[in-house]
Amino acid sequence: MEKFNKLKILFSLLVVLIIILGFTVSLNLTGGWYQQFMPGIGGRQIADITFIDSLTGYAITARLTFTDT
C-alpha cells in the first residue's frame, strides 16, 4: 500500500508539472510569418476577394469613374 501511495504522489506531481509547463512554455508556431498590410486603395471599400491559387489573390473594388481600371 505504501508503494501505491508513493506512485500516486509521483504521478500527481508529474501531472502538475506538465500542466505548469504547458501554460508557461511559449511556442512560436508561426516562425516564418509576418504581418502584411493592404496598399492604399484610395479610400474605396473592397467588394470581393478572389484567389486563383494558394499564393495569388486579387481584391475587387467598385469603379469610381469610367476610365478607372
Structural category is alpha+beta
Shape: rod-shaped
Largest sheet: 2 strands, antiparallel
> What's the total helix number?
1
Mean of residue pLDDT values = 81
Strand fraction: 15-25%
Count of beta strands: 2
Total number of domains: 1
Q: Largest sheet, order of strands side by side? A: 1-2
Unreliable runs = none
Cα end-to-end separation:
82 Å
Q: State the share of residues found in helices, binned by percent.
A: 25-40%
Give the topology string: H per helix, E per strand.
Answer: HEE
Q: Please state the CA-atom Rg, rounded to the nearest Å.
A: 27 Å
Structural commentary:
There is one protein chain. The protein has 69 residues and is of the alpha+beta class. It has one domain. 33% of the residues lie in helices and 16% in strands. The protein has 1 helix and 2 strands. A two-stranded antiparallel sheet has the order 1-2. A hairpin with a 5-residue loop joins strand 1 and strand 2. The longest helix has 23 residues. The chain starts with a helix and ends in an 8-residue tail after the last strand. The model has no long low-confidence stretch (mean pLDDT 81).
